[in-house]
Design a protein that fits this description.
Strand content: over 45%
Order of helices and strands: EEEEEE
Shape: elongated
Low-confidence stretches: none
Largest sheet: 4 strands, antiparallel
Mean pLDDT: 85
Helix content: under 10%
Oligomer: single chain
Number of strands: 6
Distance between the termini: 49 Å
Length: 82
């Protein structure tokens, strides 16, 4: 899907040398952005381990003294281990 078309002109000068170029620029929409690319758990995540077989991310949260368990599919918080 073409969203826009424009031309960009570039010119450069160095001492007595000059150069210029005109480029065509097409802007296309590739994909819809992900609405929620990350999850905020608060505190400070120190280390994390991803269990691929269960698709779970275990993140140690030092300042809250807990381990956060997040879904590998949508990063929603599944559990908090205190």
């Amino acid at each position: 899907m073409l969203c826009g078309r424009s031309q960009v002109s570039i010119a450069g000068v160095s001492g007595s040398q000059q150069a210029s170029a005109t480029l065509g620029l097409d802007v296309v929409q590739m994909a819809a952005p992900i609405a929620r690319p990350f999850t905020t758990v608060g505190g400070s995540v120190e280390r994390a381990f991803y269990d691929e077989s269960r698709q779970l991310l275990f993140a140690s949260n030092l300042y809250l003294n807990e381990v956060d368990v997040l879904s590998g599919k949508d990063l929603s918080v599944q559990a908090r281990i205190l």
